[in-house]
Amino acid sequence: MSQACCTVPPAVVGDYKPKGDYIDIDGMQVYTTGPSGATSAVFIIYDIFGFSSQALQGADILAHADESHQYQVFMPDFFLGKPLPLSVFPPDTDEKKKQLGDFFAGPANPPDTAPKVPELVKKLGQKYTGIQKWGSLGMCWGGKIVSLTSQSGTAFSAAAEVHPAMVDPEEAKGVKIPLCMLASGDENLEDVEKFKDNLSVDKHVETFKDQVHGWMAARGDLKNERVKSEYERGYGVLLDFYHKHL
């Protein structure tokens, strides 16, 4: 078992009290956690449900779990306080399908979001001048943004996607940095495998077959022991990956 897996603390079930703070970057709230002296940072692009307790806890795990290699972690509020309500998922009615579709066509439109990422990284780097390397992490919808921002000219040195949405194997051909993808059993396995095959960079691609889309973020039922265990293991895998490349 990896050192990082051994250092990930047991996930908190129920009410989670985040360890970090919120800062303002040009009118956008950004959750920030981790020691200010860390020279590597992780930029998290959350899922469509915004600042969930599971996502915030994940950010804290990445920042603090391994005392020998900690990170500054930043999670911007791309939806400006108006994420999609968790009750819309799964989209099993026409009304929910419309809500989901409208959200992806509007606030969560990937081509509109992706250009904001390098600008935010630049502004954060100007504020936190000790950061030398940046990694990215995309959750569900955020995974798509990570694919789009890992191409030529990327601001990142390594990238990771967990239970990624809208997996496009063609995008993998343009990825220029090491990439980790942790898929759930709900993703299209063929697309995940093609994405893996098309990557020409150092990679770690793994499917957690008995986990649902979103288990490491807003849809992770941490009261379920199996989900909790795989949530912890997933963050351990991410730490190992970032330790190697950041």
Description:
The protein is α/β, with parallel strands linked by helices and 246 residues long. Helix content is 36%, strand content 19%. It has 9 helices and 8 strands. It has an 8-stranded mixed beta sheet with strand order 1-2-4-3-5-6-7-8, sandwiched between helices. A hairpin with a 2-residue loop joins strand 1 and strand 2. The longest helix has 21 residues. 43% of the residues are buried.
Secondary-structure blueprint:
Elements: H1 3-7, E1 21-25, E2 28-33, E3 40-45, H2 53-64, E4 72-76, H3 94-105, H4 110-113, H5 116-127, E5 133-139, H6 141-148, E6 158-162, H7 169-172, E7 179-184, H8 189-198, E8 203-208, H9 225-245
Parallel strand pairs: 3-4, 3-5, 5-6, 6-7, 7-8
Antiparallel strand pairs: 1-2, 2-4
